[in-house]
Design brief:
The structure holds 2 protein chains of 2 kinds. By secondary structure, chain A is α/β, with parallel strands linked by helices. Chain A has helices at residues 12-26, 38-41, 44-49, 61-71, 84-87, 92-101, 129-134, 147-157, 205-218, 236-246, 261-272, 292-298, 303-315, and strands spanning 9-11, 30-34, 54-56, 77-83, 107-111, 140-143, 164-167, 172-174, 189-192, 197-201, 223-227, 230-232, 249-256, 277-282. The chains are: A alpha/beta, B alpha/beta.
Chain lengths: 317, 280
């Protein structure tokens, strides 16, 4: 069993900020837009270094999405920055018509996704955004797990032609993915090899999945852990190869079970290899105020919950 | 283009509009007819356009149609401007056509740079294109067209506020003031007060064209608008038009906003607009 250690915790949004700053230095077509959340999105460095390529839109997310679509006409690669809630639900029709249907090369970068936004409560904690975005034809959906992966993904999506939704978050979480990784859209990463159960996790739940695998190992259970940063297009092959070995699967995400990663995985399995599956996800509910750790505990989105679901799904084999 | 040719082209565009919506018994003739003169003048006399079409539109003026439901007039003017064969108008709203009910880039129709139809989004897109031109040191202009009823969509006012705040002075937004929308007169549905006063309050340069169906008036107004660009402020043209213009029974009513003429009505309408350049 591989050992994953971390020396520091960092927020994934800072990985976005670092990736954007690097793009500012390497790709003259990259431009950035923000709707009054520069500090929260960690966009300061890009702005300091490229003030002429930054557009402060004000608190007007619909206008921001339209301006981003227009900026692509003339060859720019716009990165929009605001909270996940205001990046998706608030501006769904603008994204649908002006970006997705119009196939514009816009990168919608969304911080503070899910419950881990914390104390601000449910008005700001979107748990529906993966579903909203993955339903749009042609939209790529990525949910990164740590600082390094978020930085790598931010840089990688600039080279992909087409609309992308990049989801990350607010809290400091373990940095465990390699700094020099090559981020490949749609290519899942196997973090642990195992034979008894497959755990497919995205975003903040990837570290929890590794912790769960350790806990399961202590019980004599061999868990395979897959970091599935790209929810669309989904790496069907990686999932099917894994369940062919393990015969059961747990999906883990900081999102409603309706419309999330788990449902996408269930479809792949139903079509190709019906397999017992359990979902670590929120249960069709809104969030509430609290610390990130309290919320993840209350709503069952941590390593303990993954272990429980793994034991349950093994029993269903 | 000479005045005679502009009139002939406008008449032909009217015939195209009527025949397109009649064939599929759907579409929006009223607003299309009202903007025929404007779009003909814009594409033939006002805009600096390059041959052919590429999405980025570097070194040429660009146009964005925000009120996408007047696609018949847009398609006809694009076809007569050489973006695609005029015969393709025959496929309007049919299965597998590039001429969708509302304009889109999805089927790759040359001349269209953004999907529109869900209202209120075009000005934001145009602002992005205007910012892109500034970044590219491209001194050409961005033109847009919006319905007056469309201004009820809140996103417009986000964009209107941004445009003046950020000195977007390479853009001329035209509002089709026909005073009508689907459910009736704009003043009955949701009175908007002084649209001129609103744009001026948002620090735009406002130019009024009293007769937006008169070719000379449109040319004059748009030339003034052009000279108003580059002065640090966005420019708005308030174009007073007659919905259904050129077909007597479609004028002075909102009834033809989204309704096609039947066979008899088509014949009457076409007789009022005799063939000039030849039907497709």
């Amino acid at each position: 069993m591989k050992t994953y250690r971390y020396t520091e915790k960092k927020d994934t949004r800072s990985g976005f900020g670092a990736g954007l700053a690097e793009l500012g230095r390497t790709n003259p077509n990259v431009v950035a837009l923000c709707a009054d959340l520069i500090g929260s999105l960690k966009m300061n460095q890009f702005i300091d270094e490229n003030p002429e390529r930054f557009f402060q839109i004000g608190i007007a997310e619909a206008n921001m999405m339209g301006i981003a679509a227009g900026l692509t006409i003339g060859g720019k690669i716009p990165f929009t920055g605001t909270f996940a809630n205001f990046s998706t639900g608030r501006v769904y029709d603008q994204i649908r018509q002006s970006i997705a249907y119009s196939n514009k090369n816009v990168k919608i970068c969304a911080s503070h996704a899910g419950l881990t936004l914390g104390e601000d409560g449910a008005t700001h904690q979107i748990l529906e955004d993966i579903g909203l975005m993955k339903m749009l034809p042609g939209m790529v959906v990525i949910n990164t797990c740590d600082y390094n992966q978020t930085k790598a993904a931010t840089i990688a999506i600039a080279d992909y032609e087409g609309p992308v939704y990049l989801r990350f978050g607010r809290p400091a979480v373990p940095v465990f993915m390699p700094e020099d990784q090559v981020f490949e859209i749609g290519k899942a990463i196997q973090l642990q090899e195992g034979s008894d159960v497959t755990i497919v996790a995205t975003g903040h739940l990837v570290w929890e999945a590794l912790e769960a695998a350790k806990g399961l190992n202590e019980k004599g259970i061999s868990a395979e852990v897959i970091n599935i940063h790209t929810i669309k297009p989904l790496d069907d092959k990686a999932i099917l190869e894994s369940v062919a070995k393990t015969g059961c699967i747990v999906t883990a995400e900081e999102h409603n079970f309706l419309g999330g990663l788990g449902e996408s995985v269930a479809r792949v399995l139903a079509l190709n290899d019906p397999t017992p599956q359990e979902f670590v996800a929120t249960d069709d509910t809104f969030g509430e105020s609290g610390t990130p750790a309290q919320l993840m505990d209350k709503y069952g989105l941590n390593s303990t919950a993954i272990i429980d679901k793994a034991l349950k799904v093994i029993g269903r084999k | 283009m000479s005045n005679k040719k502009l009139h002939d082209l406008t008449t032909q565009v009217r015939r195209d509009i009527l025949r397109m919506v009649h064939k599929v018994n759907s579409g929006h003739p009223g607003g299309s007819l009202g903007c025929a003169e404007f779009l003909v003048v814009l594409y033939t006399n006002i805009m600096n356009r390059k041959e052919g079409f590429d999405m980025n539109g570097i070194d040429e003026d660009l146009f964005f149609l925000s009120n996408g439901h007047i696609s018949p007039v847009f398609y006809s003017v694009l076809a007569h401007s050489g973006y695609f064969p005029v015969e393709e108008l025959n496929t309007f709203r049919l299965l597998d056509s590039r001429l969708q009910g509302h304009p889109t880039t999805h089927e790759g129709l040359p001349g269209v740079r953004i999907a529109s139809g869900s209202l209120g989004q075009g000005l934001s897109v145009a602002l992005g294109a205007a910012e892109s031109k500034k970044l590219n040191n491209d001194n050409n202009l961005i033109y847009t067209l919006h319905g007056d009823g469309e201004l009820q969509e809140g996103q417009n006012w986000e964009a209107i506020m941004y445009a003046s705040a950020k000195n977007i002075d390479n853009l001329i937004a035209t509002i089709d003031l026909n005073g009508k929308q689907i459910d009736g007169a704009t003043d009955d549905v949701l009175p908007m007060g002084s649209i001129k006063g609103k744009f001026e309050a948002f620090d735009w340069i406002v130019i009024e064209v009293e007769n937006g169906n008169d070719i000379d008036s449109i040319i004059e107004g748009m030339e003034i608008a052009k000279t108003a660009t580059g002065k640090g402020k966005p420019v708005c043209v308030l174009l007073k038009t007659m919905m259904g213009n050129g077909v007597d029974f479609m004028m002075h009513t909102h009834a033809w906003h989204g309704k096609a003429p039947n066979d008899d009505q088509l014949e009457i309408a076409l007789n009022q607009n005799p063939e000039t350049l030849g039907d497709y």
